[in-house]
Amino acid sequence: MRRTMLYLPGNNPNMLVRGHLFGSDGIIMDLEDAVAMSEKDAARTMVSKFLRRGDFGSTEVTVRINGVDTEYWKKDLEAVVPHKRLDGIRLPKADSPQIIKDVDEELSRLEDKYGIEQGHIKLFCILETAYGIWHAYDVATASKRVAAILPGGEDLVADLKTSRTPEGTELEWSRRMIVIAARAAGVDAIDLMFPRVTDDEGLRKDAQFSKDLGFDGKSVIHPNQIPIIHQIFTPTEKEIEKAQRIIAAAEDAKARGLGTVSVDGRMVDIPVVKRAHYILIKAGLEKEAE
Amino acid sequence: MALNALGRDIPEFIPGYGPTKLYQGAFALAPSANYHGPKLRVTNPDCTNKVLPDIKAAIAASGLKSGMTISFHHHMRNGDYVVNQVIDACAEMGIRDLTLFPSALFGVHKHLIDHIKSGVISRIWGSVNGPIGTLFSYGGVENPAILRSHGARPRAVMSGDVHIDVAFVAAPSCDCYGNINGTQGKSACGSMGYAMTDCQFADCVVAVTDNLVAYPNSPVSIDQTHADYVVAVDSIGDPAGIVSGTTKVTRDPLRLLIARYASRLIEASPYFKSGISFQTGASGIALAVTAFMKDAMVKRGIKGSFGLGGITSYFVDLLRDGLVEKLLDVQSFDLGAVKSIAEDPRHIEISADMYANPWNRGAAVNMLDVVVLGATEVDRDFNVNVNTEASGELLHGTGGHQDTAAGAKLTIIAQPLLRGRIPCVTDKVLTVTTPGECIDAIVTEYGITINPRRADLLEAVKSIHDVPVISMDELADKAAAMAGPMEPVETTDRIIGVVEWRDGTVIDVVRQLVKK
Amino acid sequence: MKTASAGTLESMDCLVTVTEAAPGSGVVIELEGSSVSRFRSAMEKTVRSTLSDLGANDVTVNVNDHGSLDVVLEARVETAVKRLRGEK
Fold it and tell me: Are B302 and B360 found together in one domain?
């Protein structure tokens, strides 16, 4: 499940020690935007040591490295890949299939060098330009490592030559396109973080919108946001119970060789059964088919 | 030397304290003597006005001499002026070698350090914090501090362990004959709970007020039959230090996480049903627990019977919203609580005796279902330390910790596993304040840890799916692994603090630190 | 004398300052902060072993600690030494 992925500034020991305790599905130790230029070296060393010695429970552990357009990205990978606890890399400015291929190659080289299973480290690609959004499907399919694609924020708004609005109009269609491309490519879609950390009601609205669009989850910048997002992204008991009845009815019909399935007096066809399985997967009651 | 029931080494006699009675168990000792009362007095019927011109006049009239014991309550908290003013006056009058018997001291009382060093104050029987605590810890005071809980303090007075010669009572509202309340005036503090026993048992009572009102004052918390003298001063305290504006629930994610876990434990316990009574302090985590409990109570349609202890406006909101029927208030923390106790008959003022005294016909803590407390350390036997810090310094009083833990059906210690690098769960606490037999659960950011004595709670937590349940050994091991090896605290043999249990036995001692 | 530092005074961090010393003067460690009363040996050990791994021999290390775990202390010492050497 990737309902929530919590950003932890890479140069902040307090958050690195405690971040995984807040119950998010994943954490992102950030070497990029949360770290000042003058502290890139300190953050890299800190995150590297935490990966080697820290305890993160069963959370999905990722690191957001600096983009391939910087001098830092190779040093970042060299510092974090060797530690077996790393599950994935979040790549900013992942705006073309070529960039994905270059990073994939570097990861393969490092996995080989440090005796890590080839392909183990996943990629989470942030698309931060119009070109990136337009080629989202190609980026998502550029490597088997790609686990998810994500829409950019500020940088994308600038590239679209518009500005931020309270309603979020400027990024809405970029977000929708990410979902479409992700589903077409068979990867996850993780939505934008919600910046106003004290606005619980605003977060609720935004998370509901993310869910309705079809996203698998959201990035998170403050632990207090996690329970609210989980509540919205986790199926309710009612939804789970109904899904279980639908699946039971479908299996019963199949066993009896019946063509149609009926639940609560209404005919239920294949897409509905599929959605019921998806709800149980979201609820953690079923495993996702590979 | 002998070992008490918790295996702590206690000498038979402690210089500056006297012969010791060893702690035998949380409920082992019962009283067998009578109350130890004050002198009978008479106020001449011709005297219709007990007001004296100033504090010095009152001290002179009280007969206070060097070597005597004086008491103060702590309802003025960190805004208090009275303790410092009285001690300053004693010093100027040449009165020395005093035993100070406060119900608690605050940072503002660091002013007393010079008087301690010069010998105006020779003994402190009460909490010693901040610079005063450090002074004691490194051997700067000849006689050990004696630490008693809020409930043990009235017990000690009533049983004669402590004899109060003069009680000085900061009184937010007082008339010329000594009728006192705490809810009116510019220095209003709400409940006067910690002053009541002092007034009943001291040989002489001096009310110090900045709000002299017409006779007879009403309402009356402490009545005229106790007051010997009244002094009017400009100000008894700084309102900003007496009460805080409103207590707000923390937004710190770590505290909220721990609070949520604690609330889930309470919800899963057998006590989470209509009529539940609870006490949480004003600390960040404890207040947040109340907030989570409130949500759960609303969801399940549960009404509480009473809230107890130090009352904040958050608790007052619960009363107003009908989530709790009554409040029993021994200390009002903020303006909302002060206003409520003055206006709402369901918000009841109680004495420290009624709150927590183990040797009366039943204290309020006995009726308590749930209490959420803090600690500096907890050990593998669930013993709790609130008095000394990792450095070994004696920096905190006992407060109501022992009393509520002993009385409540469910006692929860909620705190982070580490404070910085210092682990809060250790193999053996440096100082025992409250014994493991009174502690039911520890809640940290790593989950819920149940005392194996409570098979019923171990069973109950099986129904909790969204909070980790972790054994004490796992928790202590984790703390040790994260913190790394610790050097022991280096002390001399000299005892600088005596920690009494509720019944006056010695549960532990604090020894002098070696200066590094 | 060349000096460099790493870290902050935030909770659970430490500010480590390393200063080049004359060749042959060895390692001098100064510790201050809340953890020192119980973790002095452990902290000195970590500082020494980190310096040793980096081949730093003649240096004064000042640690102003605010509750850093061992992994954090190690990271800050390493970063400070690398900065002293002009590595980025």
Answer: yes
